Amino acid sequence: MADITLKRKWKWPSREAASIFFENWKSFSSWDRESLACWMQGAIVPDETDADAVVLACHPTVEASIYCGGRLWLSEEEQAKTKCPTTFHSGSTTKMYRQEIFEDIASCHPEIFKTHAPMVGRSHLMVLEDPEGCAKAIVADLETLGCFNAAAKL
């Protein structure tokens, strides 16, 4: 992932040029269009050295550094310290999430952890690709919690 990220274009002559780039770039074709528009509002910023140009707010070298470190790994003891229900969601196309690792964690502590089948055709950016589907999955998780099943008390 780091090598792909480092090759990413990061500067455009105008905001319009950047918007056209992202709206037509294959890597962003799976994104919900409203999510993409909102992302571009914060992700594309004026270039400090060129009044007309824009750049990515997060330079590719900074983003690539995220992919160069080790993955989060919790020991059995650390997993057991988790006290609240925790659910794992993923996308079927992601290279950043290994379903079997989280299934192992959930099998060791089923009272705490639960895994869900990956969202088909979604990546690690599933919230940006399918905000409605992710919201429904989160609501379904919340509905399994006892505090959301009881009548509200004032």
Q: What is the topology?
A:
Blueprint: H1 2-6, E1 11-12, H2 15-24, H3 33-43, E2 44-47, E3 50-56, H4 60-68, H5 76-81, E4 86-88, H6 99-108, E5 113-115, H7 126-129, H8 131-143, H9 146-149
Parallel strand pairs: 4-5
Antiparallel strand pairs: 1-3, 2-3
Q: How would you portray this structure in words?
A:
InterPro entries: AB_hydrolase_fold (IPR029058). The protein has 154 residues and is α+β, with helices and mostly antiparallel strands. It folds into 2 domains: 2-67, no CATH class; 76-149, no CATH class. The chain contains 9 helices and 5 strands. It has helices at 2-6, 15-24, 33-43, 60-68, 76-81, 99-108, 126-129, 131-143, 146-149, and strands at 11-12, 44-47, 50-56, 86-88, 113-115. A 3-stranded antiparallel β-sheet has the order 1-3-2. The mean pLDDT is 90.
Q: How big is the Rg?
A: 20 Å
Structural class: alpha+beta
Number of separate helices: 9
Strand order of the largest sheet: 1-3-2
Poorly predicted residue ranges: none
Binned, the helix content reads: 40-55%
- First-last Cα distance: 50 Å
In total, how many beta strands? 5
- Structurally, how many domains make up the residues? 2
Q: What does the average pLDDT come to?
A: 90
Summarize the biggest pleated sheet. Answer: 3 strands, antiparallel
Topology pattern, helix = H, strand = E: HEHHEEHHEHEHHH
- Report the β-strand fraction as a percent range: 5-15%
Shape: elongated
